């Protein structure tokens, strides 16, 4: 495992991170014991970056990670937490709260659930349209001074917001979707981050399993977020799975799986880009780790670009209502 510095001012993180969201019901049922075993396997393989959100399973995910980290040294894991998304008792999404008081309250509950004294990277999950980003980041900066947070990150925001946030406090990374079929950051956001010395922690590198090589049409349970995602609907899913077939031909030549090629492609875009893999089972984690052994040549990258050209995905990455709340989409060129 290699380690890269996160941003200009951040910690050293493993070249691949573990996203824990799927362990708390977002993709349908998951197995608690297997989830914990997967976290242990990741740490044992040298992965030190664990990504979560306080709204994953309404706190379930943080408590699960706390259980997985019992008996280990605190510094063995770099915990990245998103906060601010509001949910109701039926698990519906009801907005976002980035007010300074909410920042500090959310952090207090997170520290308790994770059973830790500090969070390594703390970030608003989305931009609150009613609160200046300077106020939200300023509140986290207060928590940095107080020792409860080590570093500040951002999630799904556009260039103008990134610049405003970075003017308040150093930002170590932007967490944002980036994959072969979600390349919006290449239209300005990535350049802004590089100019400011901010890394990218890329989630959705397999587009929620769509380009993993394992996805089958109509496989999503009603409780699965993907049952409502445009890319998994009707003709869209057929077109997207055709892209996967084209990718499979390249993977077969390389003696790799489709998932390994897709992860390796994201990693090949720069050492300042850390793929976050959402494995919730040890076998999927092992497959993802195999991507570290896939060396893509210039010829391979050309073949991949030809198989899956930029902008070739059918359907948006979220529903229209959710897309409207993404600052990264609204001001992608800002």
From TrEMBL:
Residues 15-307 form the NADP-dependent oxidoreductase domain. The keyword Amino-acid biosynthesis does not apply. Keywords: Oxidoreductase. The keyword Nucleotide-binding does not apply. InterPro entries: Aldo-Keto_reductase (IPR050791), NAD(P)_OxRdtase_dom_sf (IPR036812), NADP_OxRdtase_dom (IPR023210). SUPFAM superfamilies: NAD(P)-linked oxidoreductase (SSF51430). Coiled coil: none annotated. This is Aryl-alcohol dehydrogenase-like predicted oxidoreductase. It comes from Phyllobacterium ifriqiyense.
